[in-house]
Write a structure and sequence with these properties.
Layout (H helix, E strand, L loop, with lengths): L2 H29 L4 H33 L7 H26 L5 H36 L2 H19 L3 H13 L2
Length: 181
């Protein structure tokens, strides 16, 4: 298992959660129902798994290795990915502000929630496609097998020391719950 394969697998989990988010968005836009608890669960997943687990591995481990191997860290594919990570954080922050303050958001906040949710889903689906189809293929061509192995070891260290034992599995379960909603 290479580092990029691990990240691709994590993308599958994120896509499951996005499927659930699309159902939540459809409920908001089609029937006007805001399931605050499920949206809060999606926000928790996005903050802790997508950003706190997955993006951290990319930003602190993979991207620096790519820069060491000739990639530009400020522009090009890495620059685009970093920008999109920031945009995603902005959408999640906006949604969190709405649902943490309101158990029953008014029409304006419901519209803002739907807009941020829609933008986040669109951004992440496209972002994941770019990483899977372009950036990770470039990484596989550039990173020697021993570098990939070092990254795998570092990913495992992040999982155990920074994320915490069992947290990864907890968020896999949440993604499945969201997708089944």
């Amino acid at each position: 298992m290479t580092a990029t394969n691990i990240l691709r697998h994590e993308h599958e989990v994120v896509m499951l959660a996005l499927t659930g988010a699309e159902k939540l968005l459809n409920d908001i836009t089609s029937i006007g129902t805001v399931n605050i608890e499920r949206i809060r669960k999606f926000i928790e997943f996005s903050k802790h798994f997508t950003d706190g687990c997955h993006h951290i591995k990319e930003e602190k481990l993979l991207f620096p290795k790519l820069v060491e191997n000739g990639f530009d860290g400020d522009s090009g594919p890495i620059g685009v990915m970093l920008y999109e990570h920031q945009e995603g954080r902005k959408f999640i922050r906006n949604m969190a502000e709405i649902v943490m303050e309101n158990d029953e958001p008014d029409k304006t906040n419901t519209d803002l929630l739907a807009s941020n949710l829609r933008n986040y889903i669109y951004l992440l689906r496209n972002h994941i496609n770019k990483e899977n189809e372009i950036l990770f293929n470039m990484a596989d061509n550039v990173l020697r097998p021993e570098v990939q192995e070092i990254l795998v070891q570092e990913f495992n260290r992040v999982e155990s020391e920074e994320i915490g034992e069992g947290e990864h599995e907890k968020y896999h379960q949440i993604a499945h719950e969201l997708a089944g909603s």
